[in-house]
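for the recovery benchmark. tokens below, seq after
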């Protein structure tokens, strides 16, 4: 598939895709709390580009419209699409979009609920549903019978892919690293695949998705989640990951410029450690939307992202309700490249 290219997230976008939580999703127990994050997120997105919101039915659309209007969100910048979904983690069930000479290729990988942990049949059919609803323009959907989530990969847009061995090995334990590298490079039109061996977050269902750990900020820079507390269980793992990042090289053979994100204090809910990562930010046109957890590290994280993304506004979005379900801002969104909508 060498006629295609996987754009970096900082390239121009048509819109950001997300799905509104409802009582049929895992958010039911804390629906009011999580809706506050969704309202803040849609308000932030629509300052910079349109938001496309999946809703399960007309009643949910009417409800979402009401709460967004009450928050004075510009509804002309919001498009609602009816679709069935098991949950709202669209980073993992949404399309991975490649640019081609004639338009776009929507890679529709299998979504298995992170290795069969949760029911995911409707999420697995989401890309096909959105195509049938007429969301995409100049795009061909390509079903791929291989489990891969969008949160498991990150690209610099110039042929380098970053991922973690823990996640891909869990999904495909019989495949060698060389086999997985070849498949990813072929399907995603990459020239090379960089693997991280270390890094994880307690409470993470994804088996160490890269988007909670380390992200490209440009072709020669990486932003990563650090831990500076030797007493924290994450310290040895994230310290080892930081060491791995220092030895990675760009395609030109140079070391990456590294931006170290601060560590939030442990957030415990009903006796369970929640996976709070500042690496789970979302890049939009002209800005970076960053998760805020009501922690002293929120402002230092904003400053690091401002340094890593010069010229972009950094907008903090309250995401503490999201980590109750072990994900954050990037996990519930999928950017769509300019022209595909």
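predicted aa per position
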């Amino acid at each position: 598939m060498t006629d295609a290219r996987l754009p970096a997230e900082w390239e121009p976008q048509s819109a950001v895709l997300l799905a509104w939580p409802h009582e049929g999703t895992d958010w039911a127990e804390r629906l009011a709390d999580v809706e506050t994050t969704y309202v803040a997120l849609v308000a932030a997105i629509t300052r910079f580009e349109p938001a496309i919101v999946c809703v399960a039915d007309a009643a949910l659309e009417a409800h979402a419209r009401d709460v967004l209007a009450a928050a004075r969100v510009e509804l002309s910048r919001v498009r609602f699409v009816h679709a069935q979904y098991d949950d709202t983690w669209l980073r993992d069930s949404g399309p991975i979009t490649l640019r081609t000479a004639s338009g776009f290729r929507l890679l529709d990988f299998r979504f298995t609920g992170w290795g069969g942990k949760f029911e995911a049949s409707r999420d697995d059919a989401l890309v096909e549903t959105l195509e049938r609803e007429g969301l995409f323009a100049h795009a061909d959907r390509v079903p791929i019978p291989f489990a891969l989530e969008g949160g498991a990969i990150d690209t610099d847009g110039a042929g380098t892919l970053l991922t973690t061995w823990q996640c891909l090995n869990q999904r495909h334990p019989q495949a060698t690293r060389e086999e997985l590298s070849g498949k990813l490079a072929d399907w995603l039109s990459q020239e090379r695949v960089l693997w991280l061996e270390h890094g994880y977050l307690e409470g993470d269902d994804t088996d160490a998705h890269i988007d909670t750990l380390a992200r490209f900020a440009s072709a020669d820079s990486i932003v990563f989640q650090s831990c500076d507390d030797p007493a924290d269980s994450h310290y040895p793992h994230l310290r080892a990951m930081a060491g791995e990042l220092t030895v990675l090289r760009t395609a030109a053979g140079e070391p990456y410029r590294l931006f170290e994100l601060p560590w939030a204090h442990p957030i415990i809910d009903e006796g369970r450690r929640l996976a709070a990562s500042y690496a789970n930010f979302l890049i939009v046109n002209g800005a970076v939307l960053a998760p805020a957890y009501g922690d002293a590290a929120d402002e230092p994280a904003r400053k690091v992202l401002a340094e890593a993304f010069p010229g972009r506004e950094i907008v903090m979005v309250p995401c503490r309700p999201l980590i109750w379900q072990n994900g954050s801002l990037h996990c519930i969104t999928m950017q769509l490249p300019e022209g595909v909508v």
